[in-house]
Backbone:
């Protein structure tokens, strides 16, 4: 069935370093890929997304890259700060005809001061 | 208030109890969703409502019963739950019914004893 694999499950980095989280999806019809950040006691919050017609998107310290041939996409956070500590989820969705996102299992990021 | 509000934040219930979870969105969205979040598992879509009409039921057991009286309010009625139903239940809404741009609530942490 459809699934999204996310790695690593936990990631610790020193403040100021970069963090990379990777996801691989199985359904080649997927063409929308959002990333969510979930802080303790809160719901997931959309931080960046990418559609299949672009290979990279950047928003300040956050970037997402997409390789449709290999069916994987990655979240890059540069110059990490303690407030980046959270659980990050990737997801994949077909462009139309479904409300259903396939979520990854999450990555717990710890930024060490 | 703004965003998506869920009440209660925490709920402990016995297996014979009946309780309800409430979600309210103040964003003018027209689609609402219930998700289940369990530890180390991907988020699981439970129900989708589009303009108050249920458009998806993801094989959810009948002990979970959703209700959507209008496009701003969503309920999840619970009865005769099992301990394995303990999880974080998240409500989300989106502007258009194809699921882009989810806004999640903070969730209800449910414990079934």
Residues:
């Amino acid at each position: 069935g459809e699934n999204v694999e996310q790695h690593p499950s936990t990631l610790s980095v020193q403040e100021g370093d970069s963090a990379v989280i990777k996801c691989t999806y199985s359904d080649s019809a997927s063409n929308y890929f959002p990333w969510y950040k979930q802080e303790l006691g809160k719901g997931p919050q959309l931080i960046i997304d990418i559609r299949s017609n672009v290979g990279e998107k950047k928003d300040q310290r956050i970037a997402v890259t997409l390789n449709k041939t290999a069916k994987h996409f990655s979240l890059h956070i540069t110059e990490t700060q303690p407030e980046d500590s959270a659980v990050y989820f990737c997801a994949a969705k077909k462009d139309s005809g479904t409300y259903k996102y396939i979520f990854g299992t999450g990555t717990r990021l710890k930024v060490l001061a | 208030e703004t965003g998506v509000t869920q009440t209660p934040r925490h709920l402990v219930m016995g297996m014979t109890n009946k309780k309800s979870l409430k979600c309210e969105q103040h964003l003018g969205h027209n689609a609402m969703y219930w998700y289940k979040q369990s530890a180390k598992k991907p988020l699981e879509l439970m129900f989708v409502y589009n303009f108050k009409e249920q458009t998806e039921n993801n094989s959810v057991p009948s002990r979970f019963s959703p209700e959507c009286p209008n496009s701003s309010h969503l309920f999840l009625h619970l009865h005769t739950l099992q301990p394995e139903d303990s999880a974080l239940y998240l409500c989300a809404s989106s502007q258009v019914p194809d699921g882009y741009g989810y806004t999640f609530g903070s969730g209800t942490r449910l414990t079934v004893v």
In short: The interface with chain B takes residues 3-4, 9, 32, 34, 36, 41-46, 89, 93, 96-106 of chain A (CB under 8 Å). The mean pLDDT of chain A is 93. The two ends of chain A are 41 Å apart (CA to CA).
